[in-house]
Design a protein that fits this description.
alpha/beta, 32% helix
Length: 223
């Protein structure tokens, strides 16, 4: 994948430039694209020979130059910014869109039309916010029921935005695969004293599963 001067300014890249799959990741609602969590995720994916491109929504990017902390807009208001990021990437042969928490939710809202037009090969959500914390009745799953885009959700079993017990009763699309990380929280981190696993263990599992899934997707070429 070639990197233009514009892309170099807009995106934070990790992984080999000639990777078979490029994963475009947006951040969560409260942390930037270079948060410790996303840094660790991007490094793990890059180690698994995937190209990762990270970007920030305008409200988050503005915090770097202003003392004012703009709150995140509603997810629906960010879809055009995500599409602009897809447009700005030099077209890789196989593109997966997604993100951490809210970033993955925004990507999921635009996935089907982009996939239908051949612009993306799949969707990756890392810690999907199925509902607000403490509000399990306020589901954010309506568009996931009939989704046709091949999708992978990596979720901790004790994620307060959607535990395994909760999510298994939602009846979402069969095109969505969920990888459950035992005792993982919203950042996919387990409690070693409880599970015997570490954050590094879960990151390796995540990256291995994502790489196998992404490489198995039908090749798509951006139009």
């Amino acid at each position: 994948m070639r990197v233009s001067a514009k892309s170099a300014k807009m995106f934070l890249f990790d992984g080999p430039a000639d990777a078979e799959a490029t994963i475009l990741l947006a951040h969560g609602a409260g942390a930037p694209m270079d948060s410790p969590s996303l840094n660790a995720i991007a490094k793990a994916l890059a180690t698994a020979d995937m190209r990762v491109a990270r970007f920030e929504f305008e409200y988050m990017a503005s915090r770097r130059t202003s003392s004012a902390r703009k709150p995140p807009p509603r997810a629906e208001m960010l879809t055009s910014e995500y599409i602009a990021a897809v447009d700005a990437l030099e077209p890789p042969e196989r593109l997966v869109i997604g993100g951490k928490s809210m970033g993955g939710r925004v990507a999921s809202m635009i996935a089907d039309p982009l996939h239908a037009s051949g612009r993306i090969a799949g969707l990756l959500c890392l810690g999907y916010p199925f509902h607000p914390i403490g509000k399990p009745d306020q589901l954010r799953t309506a568009h996931l029921v009939d989704m046709h885009t091949p999708a992978l959700i990596v979720q901790g079993t004790r994620d307060p935005f959607g535990t395994r017990v909760e999510v298994e009763g939602y009846g979402i699309s069969g095109d969505i695969e969920i990888v459950w990380l035992e005792d993982g929280d919203h950042d996919l981190k387990p409690r070693k004293a409880v599970s015997g696993l570490t954050a590094a263990d879960h990151l390796r599992t995540m990256a291995t599963r994502v790489a196998a899934w992404a490489h198995g997707l039908t090749r798509q070429t951006l139009r």
